[in-house]
Amino acid sequence: MKKLFAFIAVIGMLSLGASTNVFAQDETAEQATVDTTQVAEEVAEEVVEEATPVMEEEVIESTSFHKVVKKQFIQGGAMFMSFVLLALILGLALSIERIIYLNMSTTNTKKLLANIEDALSNGGVDAAKEVCRNTRGPVASIFYQGLDRIDEGVEVVEKSVISYGSVQMGLLEKGLSWIGLMIGLAPMLGFMGTVIGMIDAFDSIQSMGTISPAAVAGGIKVALITTVSGLIVAMILQVFYNYCTAKIDSIVNSMEDASISLLDILVKHNLKK
């Protein structure tokens, strides 16, 4: 009987010890979970705190760009910076006008020549002239002038096409000289503002009687703003100028090639004196 009671007591002690260990392990796991959650929250808060100033700085930089430009414009001197800005506005206006005109002057010469040849075959010269009247661009105008003198012979047509082609070339190049003027004028205005600014800086040094590095550096910085602005304006306008000249060269080459093809068509149809 004593052995039975001893056996039961040993089993009870072992069961109590196992339950105590399980409870201790549960507490340890819960504590570890709480610690992990706290660490994750702290890390997230640190990341948010570090990212927030960066985002605020980006917003400030993006919103203050126009303020920086305005500040530099005022520091460079309102008078000379206004002239540089005027050169930019006029140059851009002329460039946009030329780009629109040149794009509208572009003609599909192959399609035009095919339509003229069909018109000559079916309706004669009057039908071909009607096709030219209904087509936009300098190539169609040259063709119309040539067809209008077909009764005088192919040689007269050729001379008429060459002469009127020169006129159309002049119309295409109209306004480019003014764009070139703005390209050259903008840096010159900037240099003039820089020179006058340097003169003012040296006058300030002379009036103070001593050389202050801060004053000299500030005056030189302000004086150079006009030069930088003039160079930027010149570079922007130079891009538009080169585009216009390349477009004109392309249109002129098409005019010359199409004129030769027109004379071949006229000879083919025996439309000569």
From TrEMBL:
The keyword Cell membrane applies. Keywords: Cell membrane, Cell projection, Cilium, Flagellum, Membrane, Protein transport, Signal, Transmembrane, Transmembrane helix, Transport. One of its GO terms (biological process) is protein import. One of its GO terms (cellular component) is plasma membrane. The keyword Transmembrane helix applies. Residues 137-256 form the MotA/TolQ/ExbB proton channel domain. InterPro entries: ExbB/TolQ_transport (IPR050790), MotA_ExbB_proton_chnl (IPR002898). It is a multi-pass membrane protein. It is found in: Cell membrane; Membrane. Coiled coil: none annotated. The chain crosses the membrane at residues 73-94, 178-199, 219-241. Residues 1-24 form the signal peptide. Belongs to the exbB/tolQ family. This is Flagellar motor protein MotA. It comes from Labilibaculum filiforme. The lineage of its organism: Bacteria, Pseudomonadati, Bacteroidota, Bacteroidia, Marinilabiliales.
